[in-house]
Known about the structure:
- The complex is a heterodimer of chains A (302) and B (252).
- Chain A contains ten helices and 13 strands.
- Chain A is α/β, with parallel strands linked by helices and 302 residues long.
- A six-stranded mixed beta sheet of chain A has the order 5-6-7-3-8-9, with helices on both faces. Chain A has a four-stranded antiparallel beta sheet with strand order 11-12-10-13, with no helix packed on it.
- In chain A, helix 3 crosses helix 4 (109-122) and helix 3 runs parallel beside helix 5.
- The longest helix of chain A has 16 residues, at 168-183.
- With 252 residues, chain B is mainly α.
- Classes of the chains: A alpha/beta (302), B mainly alpha (252).
- At the A-B interface, helix 2 and helix 3 of A face helix 1, helix 3, helix 4 and helix 9 of B.
Amino acid sequence: MLEVADLRKTFRAHKRKVSALDGVSFVVKSGEVVALLGANGAGKTTTMRMIAGLIVPDSGTVRLEGYAPDTKGYNARLGVLLDTARSSSARLGVMENLEYTAALRGLSPKEAKIRALRLTDELGLVDKRDAPTQTLSKGMLSKLALANALIHQPRCMLLDEPTLGLDLEAGDALEERIKEMALSGVAVLLTTHQMEVADRLADRVVILVGGQVLLDKPRAELISQFGVQTYRLTFENSLENFSTHFPSTITGNQMTITLPDPHGLYTILDALHPRAIINIEKLEVDLGTIFRKAIKDAEVKA
Amino acid sequence: MNTLLLFRIEFIRSIWELKRNPFQTVTGLIVLGVIFYLILGAGRLLSSNAPTTASTASLILNYTLGMIVFSQVSLPSSLIRTESKNGMLEHLFLSGHSLATIFTARALGGLFLNILQMGVLLGGLLLLTGTTLEWSWYMVIPMLIAMISALGFGFWFGSVAMLIKDNSGVLVLSQLFLFGLVALPLIKDLWFYLIPIASATSLVNWAAFGGKPDFEYLLPALMSALGYFISGTFLLQKSLQIAKQKGILGHE
């Protein structure tokens, strides 16, 4: 389990103090995938780098299964993938890269070889084992980066924008691997701007705004608690030139409406009378909609 | 045990790199040979006296020594720069080894090949210029001391590279300074031992031309080298802390 408690960090920029993190706390349990979301500059990368031990917080603590950063126990349990496009030595081949990282992590040459062979097999890099790194495609490089991060079998994985710049196939494969990691009991913390990725992977969502945790909830709870309801109404006839006094999107004979609570639907239906409705469909609310609404609400409150 | 594994893998890594990029090594040697001839030619143009075999041999020795020393001095900062570009710096930091250990392991891992390359360069230049250099076992100890001093001095540059990633300009300038240092003759004053690398390389030079450096000179040279190594390690650790505070670790 990864425990982040009350992290605070202020940087100096142009002789001004800028608060990057202001009391960030959350937990990632074993086998759980937590999506750390936020706009640019919200503090996601600073949080990730702090957990990786690359930035020292002004105050607050990070613990991984009880171990503090920069200790042997912590480093042995943490896997880091902060940049999928470049996390390997360009002058070496695929197997050499993996064996090198394994040795850095203290694995014996025999064990390093076994794990490198297994990972290249699992991640579809068998044909590329001897290939020089600089000849690999972006998708292959991301697989190698992931293999490098997994070689010492970490108990917690930090993934910063793991699917960024990957094609659909490579992205799907990486998502599949993340799910497998979680199933095997690894605590996964990921950041992404691709809400559909977070939607597919996250068990829990932490939203950062201005270096503070705005929301920290299980994804399912977030969707039901946030109270956003989206419906698609299908009419018998086209809705061309039809205007409404409530926010809606009209396409042909279909109207999509987003309501703060389900009771509002009756008012809308009254307003639409006597137009014939042939179907009412409740749409699954995606994380993107919730994220946008959360940010908007926070701005209104501020 | 882990440290031994690190030293082992760094040695293997240098062989992997040589196997994968052999042309780079060959071209590097050719370029170094051409640069030597340019220096030799410039020296002949500027000097009124005709060069003697001894002065050419001394130039070849100091040139090769300078190259070895420079590769050690530039290693920590170039490693920080390239590994931060590769995105491997995080793996190095999370390996649990101290930076000084990692740099020393990389330096020692590559030392065999470095010496092999420089040996080829030295032999090639001696052959081409028709000069000879007397091999003496007395050269080995001061050479090792020079390596320790150069690596320690490299830690100083590395500590700067940790905070300012692109310091390649400073390194190029330092090259001129280093070549000046390795060519210094042995001066039997205490202050001379405060200069990085020079005391050890002057002993190599002395031994190469028939001198026998005894304990009286080797000990202060070793103390000087250890001083640079220890202070370099301290500076490296300090700049690592500052980089972590500033949040600039691992960034290009």
